[in-house]
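re the bet — no i am not wrong, look at it urself. input seq straight from the record:
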Amino acid sequence: MEFRWSFNNIKTKHWVGINLSTLAPSAVIYCDEGVVDAVAYDQEQGVEALTSWIKKHVSHEMPAVLVLDDDDYELLLAEAPDVPDEELTAAIEFRIGDLLAQPITDTAIQAIRLPKDAYRGRMSMAHVIASKNETIAARVQWAKELHLSVEVITVPEISLLNVLAASSLDQGIALLKLGPKHGTIRLYQAGALYLTRTIEVGTEALDIQHIEETPEKTVNTGLNEHSDDAKLNEINLEEMIVEDEMNSDFILTDEVEISELQLEEGAEQDLVINEQEYVGFAPKAKVNEQQVQSLVLEVQRSLDYYESQLGMGQITQLWLMSGNVDLTHLVDAMQPALTANVEQPNILEKLKHADINIADSIEEMNSTVMALGGALAYVAN
C-alpha cells in the first residue's frame, strides 16, 4: 500500500485539511480563494471535539487531506537505489524491511529522495515514511464515517513544507516545533526536507511564563482568616506571654530574637504576616535557563550537521512553533546564543503577505498550521 501525495489539476469548491494530532487536532476548510474556516483543540478536548466540529461544518463528500499524528508513522533515512523517482518507493522496500517493527507487507511506505546536493553529492539518500496498514485503514475509516472523501494522506514534515512554499520561503530555514514533552526540529531548503531530529526538551521543562509577574508580592498566609481584630504586622505579645507562661521580664526592648519565641500551635492562628515587608522576592524566571541551554545545544548540533555533514549553507532563520503558546520569552532567551534569526512566526500575517485570503472571523492560524499544510497539499498548481 502506498500513500497518495500532492497532485495537480484538481478543482473543487471547498476541501478540508485535517490534522489528526492527539496533542493539537485541528482542521482548515480551504477554497481557491483561501482559508474559509479553521478550528483547533487541545489534548484534553481531543479528536472527539474535532469530530463534532467536522459534523457541523464540513459537508458530506468534501475532499479531505489527512495529516497523520507523529505516532502514526516512522521517518527513516536510507540510501536510495539508483532508479527513477517513480520506482524509488518500490525499490527501497528491500532496504528498510529490517528497520521496521512489522513486516513490510503490512506497511504503507513512501520514499522521498533528498536533493542531489545533500551529503555533498557523495551518496544518494531518501527519507522513507512508513506507517502500519492498519493505522492508515483506521484513519480512512474514521473519515469515511464522517462522510469525507479522503484524497491525500500526508505527514507533518510535508505539511510544514507546504506552508513554507505558500509563504514563498525557499532559503534554508529551521522549524522547531515544541510539544509539552519534546520537540522536533526540521531543516528545509529550496522546497525539500533535508533533516529532521527529535529534541528531548518540551514546553513543560522550559517552564515558559506567559504573564509578567511583579517583583514584589503581598502574601496573605491565610493563618488569620476568621479574625476581625488582627492587623498586618501586629502581634499581641502580651497574649503570647500569657499563653506560653513566659516571663514578662524577657521582653526588655523592641528588639526580640524570634528564634527564642516558642509558639504553641494555636498561637499561629493569631498571626498574619505581610511577607512583602520581610522578604525581597525576585521575579520568577521567564524560562528555565538550564533547559534553554540544552535546547540551544540541540538546535546548534542540528545546524552544524546541516552545514558540515550535509554540505549545505548556513541556516539563517529559525522558526519556533508551539500552537498558540506565546514563545516570546523563549525567543528572547535563545537569540543571543544563535546566529540564525529566531522568531515565532505569525502564520496569519505571513499568509496575508503571500496574498492568501483569510476569512475575517479567523484571528490566528498558528494553532492550525498542520491542518493548513494539509489543505495546501490539495491546492491546484
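see?? The CA atoms of residues 134 and 273 lie 62 Å apart. told u. also The longest helix spans residues 289-308. so pay up
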